[in-house]
UniProtKB/TrEMBL annotation:
Predominant place of localization: membrane
Protein name (database record): Diacylglycerol kinase
Biological-process GO terms, alphabetical: phospholipid biosynthetic process
Gene Ontology molecular-function annotations: ATP binding; kinase activity; metal ion binding
Cofactor section: Mg(2+)
Chain sites annotated for binding ATP: E70, K88, D89
Residues holding substrate: E63
Amino acid sequence: MNKFIRSVGFALKGLRYAFITQLNFRIQTSAACVVIALGLYLNINTQEWHWINLCIALVLVMELFNTGIEALVDLVSPQYNKLAGHVKDVSAAAVLIMALFTLITGIIIFAPKLLLLFHAA
Ligand SMILES: Nc1ncnc2c1ncn2[C@@H]1O[C@H](COP(=O)(O)OP(=O)(O)OP(=O)(O)O)[C@@H](O)[C@H]1O
């Protein structure tokens, strides 16, 4: 049990590191809070919540992996190295793909509800 609590502590340390050092992680966390608030306000259904939760979790997980990979590249290759650059670029591309998927999912779920709301007003 002690080992488990220690592991959770290390994971929280990782979260704290990403939050403090990565502007993108802070932006993504704030955006997630806004989306959750919007979901509550617009009373989205269970299935829609599943998609939103999945997107939020995956964007944050991708950003955490990206942060870890960046740190590892800086450790292994502090000097300019073409391959090191590719590793960082590919890692950033993974975050971008997930962010685009999330944006599209958000539009599919929220746009019709927001349009209805504005039309009703
Ligand atoms: N050691 C390196 N060798 C070659 N190119 C690098 C190296 N480090 C960074 N680069 C290039 O510079 C880009 C930006 O790198 P950087 O480490 O600033 O990433 P970042 O995404 O801006 O990180 P952060 O989110 O911490 O600001 C990389 O995507 C890569 O193309």
